[in-house]
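Give me the fold.
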Amino acid sequence: MTEGLLGDDRIIRETGLDARIAGIVRPVLAAAGFRLVRVRLTGQNGLTLQIMAEREDGTMDVDGCEEASRAVSPALDVEDPIDRAYHLEISSPGIDRPLVRKDDFAAALGHLAKLETAVPVAERRRFRGRIVAADDEAVTIERDQAAYGEEPTVRVPFDALAEAKLILTDELVREALRKDKEARQAAKRNAGDDAGDADGIEDGTETEN
């Protein structure tokens, strides 16, 4: 394991220059409270460095993207891995997110996904179907378009995966909206608890005085 991969719990990682950049930004993001999802250098707008990141709880908003950008920009300036001008783009993984960690697959149970493998699995390299199981070694999908003679379900080892991504569906959107609502409600409750704690401290201080 190279130094850039130390502590990287992703099972799907970058190669080449993207991997070098990931090795630079991942520990910086981790120190700032974020998890790296994916790095991709594209020819968009001349040259764009796309970095997907999220907080430890899987959330990400505009403020988080700005905070992550402020964290990684100095490190990229110092290491200077890209030899020409580029645009830096920090984004959330989105609803139809890439699946890069084992817990991503566990969290996506019941949803449709596209998988691509580096080596043939069940005589194929591309799969589309519903995630029905995920353990420490592999993900099992139920194919939505199984060809004649193919098993309806296939178990894909994690170490064979090259790409994995959720497919945007109404069901996925509904779940994302539900989770967002729950997160907002939890944030409001926490804010109320903090206010109550502050009131209690002030009351106590006044009583003691």
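Residues 170-208 form the longest helix (39 residues).
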